[in-house]
Structures are given as structure tokens and as C-alpha cells.
Amino acid sequence: MSVQEYLDKHALSRKIEDAVNAAVRAKTPDPVLFISNHMKKSVPSMITKVKARQILDSRGIPTVEVDLYTNKGMFRASAPSGASSGMYEAIELRDGDKGTYLGNGVSRAVRNVNEKISEALIGMDPTLQSQIDQAMIDLDRTEKKESQLVFTRPLLHFSNLFLPLRESAFWEFFFQGELGANAILAVSMAACKAGAAEKEVPLYKHIAVLSGNTNLSLPIPAFTLLSGGKYAGNFLPVKQIMILPIGARQFEEALQMGSETYHHLKAVISKKYGTDGCSVGEDGGFAPSITSIREGLDLVKEAIGRTGYSEKLKIAIDVDATEFCIGTKYDLDFKSPNNSGQNFKSGEDMINIYKDLCADYPIVSIEDPFDKEDWEHAKHFSNLGICQVVGDDLLMSNTKRIERAVQESACNALLLKVNQIGTVTEAIEIVKLAKDAHWGVVISQRSGETEDAFIADLCVGLAVSQIKAGAPCRGERLAKYNQVHTLPHNSQLLRIEEDLGDQAVYVGDDWRLS
């Protein structure tokens, strides 16, 4: 084939002429760069390759990372992972080979991306997020991204169906995915980043368009200050005690408040418990040797008092009550080595405890105050209107459970963990469902995080009221708050606020109305 034949076959002469004319009209100082970019834009973008690999999350446990290629570049995403999986959520795929990563390897999920998902998505337009996600769902063929029944680790707190066996070596079982929610999610997130790049807009703006949202806002960060529950080695029964900088005027100020309070708390803890008390849990919260909720709240209250932000900072608690519910009772001493088993609380007792705590401390939000199947007490407490009641284990980002909670008024806020639902499109739909019920929405980290800051853009794009990304320390947590990248599709919250300029709106005092 001659040069002229090649030019004619691909209409290159006309395309090059159009690019040159565009450069002349633009009076560009760098015509070569302009013509190169103009030619690239003229080529419809499509997915050309999807490549997955196994990496380690913040706990040193394997997870899935995906590189998705288009003719515009490469886009990377990684799936977060939680310490536990509920029976109503999308399930990640693990290898189960105890000889490799103690059974936590994800080579099967990686292989599914490289051999099955890649083949299904090559040639698709990355801007068509819902079609990409639906293609993977169809390929997976299961409601919960699952198909195979497997046995995993021993579990004490299994299900109310097996209450008499909860202290025996009963085995947790659940279904694992045909493809794996960890495989599907990483691809879905990478595709979303590619779609934003194709449109030449920041990721959060692309997500806003996908969701039909026209009002962008910066969420209130829920900073973890104290870690407890099963995530820390102290005797604090609740999972986390957090602060909400509700009185900040912008996100940058909120981040400053969180950081200063965190370091004041470190000084308070160091003085009372020694430097050993400043060890941190998985999401960066301090884990001193405290034994009660009030002891922890007193520490946080003292730290807040030192900051001068007392009127601008409020407290939130993640109780994670399912972890210490035995039958219909709640064992607040479940971590104590001297637990006599005599200090069980009823659901009504727990309601009274929460009422007293909210009266004595500036608590405005309580997450999972009861067991995931204790709908009656959840409904009773939520209807008191004392504070925001967030459903995590109660809902598990599951549509049917959210619909039930809306109908029964069992809570008034959704905690969304993207890996519980499986795809970006499904996450958008779940948030719409919560907002239609006039609920608050909290988009959350997982205990096993990576430096992927996708949820920061997701929060802004969906205009949710709160982001729960851990303490203002540890790289994988701070990535969501302030990691600055030069590429527009990797904007994080501080940069997003900068990008929006005068149009940046921090939720602030209106957090319950957002």
C-alpha cells in the first residue's frame, strides 16, 4: 500500500487539515501540541484493555487493583475491603487457600477480570457507566455477585437463628461471587474515571451527571478520634467515637479543626495513659486503655475544649451493636477479661443509655445503636428524634432492607460502603433511594483501604452530607481528605473545593437537610 493509498483509506488528509485549521483559528502558541490533542479528541474513546493485579490493602490483606485502558490513557482503581461481610451484601471473592495469604488471596478475582470481564468490556464506551456495570452484572449472573457456597473463619456472632451456638466453634458461611464484588467494583470505579477523562471533566462532575445531580456540595468529614470494638485492643465496647466539624465554613477549615482536635486528644491521652495509650486502630483512631463509653467521651470532650471550637464541633458514635448482641441482650463488657456475663442490657436499657449520653455530650449522630435484626428498638429510638440514626449493619446497602427501614422509620440515614453494593451505578441508585426518603447519607471507608480516593469524588458528585474516611492521619485515610493530584479525574476534597472556587458549598450547619 502506498502512502497516498494509506492516507486516503483513513481520511488522514482531511483530518489533518481540520486539525491545522483549528490550530490557526485558536492562534495557539504550540501548534504541534494543539494538533496532537485535537486529533486525539476526534477519535471516539473505547475500552481497549482491562488488567487486574493483586495488591495489599492498609491491613496487609490482598485486594484487587485494576488498570483500565482506553485510547485516551490508563485509569486505575482498587477495591476496599471490610473486616466482615453481611449476609445481605455483595460478597468479595477470596481464594480460600490457607497456604497463601492465610486464605485471603484474590487471584481468582484477578483472573476473572483478566479473562472474563476484560473480554466483555473491550470496545465499550467508558462514558456509558450504566451499560458497563450492567454488562458485568449480567456476566456475574447473581443478585449478590455470588454463586458458590464456601466455609470460612469461625464466627461467634453469626445469626439470631443460631443464638444458642454463638459461643461455640460455629462456622460463618456465605456465598462467594462468580466474579467477585471486589473484581466488579474495581473495574466499575476505573471505568468511571475513564469516562470522566473522556468528557474532560473532574471525576466528581462526571458522577454528578451520571446521577442527574446539579447541586454540588462538600461533605462534613466524620473524623475518627477513638477506636474500640473489635477494631482495637482496648475495652471500649463501641467501634468509633468521631467528631463532626458542623460549624466550619468550608472543608479546608473542617480539616484544620479535625487535625487540631486529633493532636490535642493525643496530648490528653499521653498525659493520662502514657505514650502507650497513643497507639491507633485500623482507621487511625487512638486506642487507649479505656473501659467505658463515657470515659472515651470525656477524653474527646476535653480535647474539643482545648481547641476553642466547642460550639463548632459535634460528636458521633459508631456503636456497631451487632458485635456485642447476644440473643436479645447487649453485653457492653464483651471485651473485658473479667466479664461475669451479668451486665447485659436490654434494648430498652440501651435506648436509655443513648438518651443520657446525648443529654450529657454534644452527640448528634449514632450509627448502628442496635443489632442488625433488632428492628423494633431501632424504630423506637429513631422515632424519638434525638439525633441522626445511621443504618450500617441494619441496611448493608441492600435495597430491600433500605425500603423496609424507610417504611418502618428504623433509621434516618444511610451508611454507604461502595463494596457492599458492587458497582458505581448501583451506589448511585441506593443514594437516590435514601434521598427520596429525606434521609442523610454517609459514604464510608472500609477497615481495609487503599490510596484510591474515589469515595471523595463520589461524595461531592452525589452531594451527600457526610464522608466517613477515618482519622486525620494514615496515608490511605488522608488520601480521601487532602491528597492533591495533577490529573483532573483524581481530584480529592481539598482540591475539589479549590476547583469549585466561589461555587464551593460546604454542608456545615445544614448537614441534616442535605
From TrEMBL:
Pathway listed: Carbohydrate degradation; glycolysis; pyruvate from D-glyceraldehyde 3-phosphate: step 4/5
Signal peptide start and end residues: none
Enolase N-terminal domain ranges (all copies): 47-207
InterPro entries in alphabetical order: Enolase, Enolase-like_C_sf, Enolase-like_N, Enolase_C, Enolase_CS, Enolase_N
Record's keyword terms, sorted: Glycolysis, Lyase, Magnesium
Named cofactor requirement(s): Mg(2+)
Keyword Transit peptide: no
EC assignment: 4.2.1.11
PROSITE patterns with a match to the protein in the record: ENOLASE
Domain annotation Enolase C-terminal TIM barrel: ranges: 215-514
Similarity field: Belongs to the enolase family.
UniProt cross-references to HAMAP family, sorted A to Z: Enolase (MF_00318)
Name the UniProt record assigns to this protein: phosphopyruvate hydratase
Naturally occurring in which organism (per UniProt): Coffea arabica
Taxonomic lineage of the native organism: Eukaryota, Viridiplantae, Streptophyta, Embryophyta, Tracheophyta
Primary gene name: LOC113710454
